[in-house]
Amino acid sequence: MIPAAIREPVIVGRGLTQVYGAATVLDDVDIRIDPGEVRALIGSNGAGKSTLVKILTGAVRPTAGTVEVVGQQVHLGSPSEMIGRGVACIYQHSNLAPALSVLDNIFLGRNPTRRLGLVDRPRQRREAQALLARHGIQIDLDVPAGSLPAVKQKEVEILKALALDAKVLLMDEPTGWLASADVANLHATIRKLKGQGVGILYISHMLDEVFAICDTMTILRDGRVVAENAVADISRARAIELMIGRQLAAQTKEASEARVSRMTGSVRLKARGLARNGVFSGVDIDLNAGEILCITGLIGSKRTELVRAIFGCESLDAGSIEIDGAPIAVKSPSEAIAAGIGLVPEDRHRDGLMLGLSVSENLMMATLGRFRRGLLLDRGGMATAARRLIASLNVKPASETRQVRLLSGGNQQKVLLGKWLDGRPGILMLDEPTVGVDVGAKAEIYDILRAARDEGAAILVVSSDIEEVLAIGDRVGVMSAGRLVSVHPAKALTASSLVTMIGEAA
Amino acid sequence: MAGRYSILPLVGFFILVFAFFSFTATRFASATNIENLLSGFSFVAMLAVGQAFPILLRGIDLSVGAIVAVVGMIVFDLSLIFGVPGWLILPVALLAGAAAGALNGVLVVYVRLQPFIATLATLAAYRGLVYSISGRQLVPELSTTPLRDPWIIGLETYFDVGRFLGISSIVKLPWIPLSFVALLALVAVLQLVLSATRFGRDLFAVGGNLEGARLAGINVARVTVAAYAISGACAALAALFLVARLTTATEALGIGAELTAIAAAVVGGVSLQGGVGTVVGPAIGAFLLGVILLGLTLLGVSQFVQQIMTGVILLAAISYDRLLALRVRRAGPSL
To answer: What is the DSSP string of B66-129?
Structure first.
């Protein structure tokens, strides 16, 4: 332990304020991290977490406020300055240069050089190998980073941060894409760094992780610090309440208690022997009206590929699909939509939303045909329908003309859901519907899905989040290495039995 | 680094095409024809090598042909109108090219124009500049006077390798033009810059993941401006050899050269998706285009059909590049 006398905080932010136009996204926020402290930063989407992280990494310059690193005031708004001071960050999204080797990526932007600006490769390799040995990580330093699987890429990002000998390490949703074994690995690394006196800011939506790994927490709501606590002094329920506000917390609790198990209705989608060479094979699915079927499993178990193939994004090499007993061959998404299937993809920015278009245009995208009036579109009718949906989905701010990219992640996801719900497809497939969505919006999304189910929709959810699977699933399927290993009624499952099952299947 | 392996199929294809024309077109493998290839396509290769830098950043430089003309005209004016000595003209010309390129970079970084638009605009502007500074228009009587400065004319030199080795009585080897030697030096230096310097690594980072590079503390603006400046300087170098060869500069110098350069760079394995490529590749790509075009000429195929061929080769190379990118995306990380 470091003696109390020299426990000078590694980083202190004072009065940090960020104003974008009329919106104040961060309002007079103070934050302080001591050496060897793991501080959680939690809050709903739009609470200002990302903005605070961006200020601390130098990606943006705040409107007001100061930051000191180890007692020294720093010039804000410069990534190289923050890196130079020993502030490292592991970002939610990949920041690797795909064509460069792992080795070059670890030293990105600060490769050691000799005369004439030539990179000192032997030294770089020596330092990297020492780093690998110190943290017990095994990775091929010479392959291009882009060729590695997602989990390995995350490791490279972590190495990149570790190589800095950081005094402060910011981790923005570091486990977002990791399977549970890798999460444990990551947490072991965090404990080691903590022992070395590194101050860590841990941003996560997963309260489980926060309570497992963090010492203290700062809770943000609407750009302000609403609480600072030692993790030991606060209950989970209280933390959620502080994050999302009292009212919403009560609603969420009510909804999950009101849950009844069901498995009614007829088979809407019946798939037999679905296969795509080298990806998945022998998948049988019966999806009933009025149920939510969750498919879970480890990363790389090809769940995304399966739903994409059912939706016609990828071709199938074998198998048959029947909808309401009638065999169909779906060769493109437009055929799937015509057959009443909807898909909410995993990456909403890349595959789901038209970010530059309005909320209304996004909501009506898949069902524009309904608003055709001769050659033109019935704008008035669209606006009315959009306002009705916005109200029922509780999209905030409630404006149908707002550009979708200006909404928070959770609200974007609601718009994406609304796009299908208004078309009333009998069959809706969702791929990781709440990744990167805050607790409040998560609860609302669950409510929306339950309501759709109760109206008779057949819903298939791909999810890695065990809590989520157990919260909304009526039946749960476990997928492993391209096979749907087993399907169970959710009633019969507990979190631990499900985790065991996923582990054994793999 | 990533391109090291992708060079091999390119070299293989080059040899295959070369062998094909050697058998089908008489005189193709003759010393004279090889000489034509080396002297005629070293310029193209210089442009292609320079073009690799903006493309590595997911950009493009459409203005290289116009920069060739501007630099050519600057050489013409300085030498014939102002009587500036050749040893001074050479560095001035290179600096002018680099500055013209750097302006492209500034437009991309600070005015935030898309590279295609920025360099399309400077293409037009530089072309206009050529006419307004044209010594042929300002002093019409000079338009038939050839350049005589030994420093400039000296660039059009050939080395008789066969005689140097004392084997000219046994085989007839092509004479090696100085432009080709200069190209080899250029490729060697720039390839070293790309694969072994900090700047080179930064370039791949910016091209491969712009936001990641910025957050790693890389000065994205400086890297971008430098990349376009290198493209401009390469265009200036090409212009010097071109002017030396023609012993004059015309307003039409380098028209359409940007397309050939881009085609050569893409054929040479520089991905239009950014972040992937080499310097050696575009140079080989340029000579591959040269072999195909010269070979077709010797087979008696018309100039127009050759232009169609250039278009087809460019399309094929870009489609291949897209295909690779799609395959990477499919095979990429997913749940």
So the answer is: HHHHHHHHHHHIIIIIS---HHHHHHHHHHHHHHHHHHHHHHHHTS---HHHHHHHHHHHHHHH
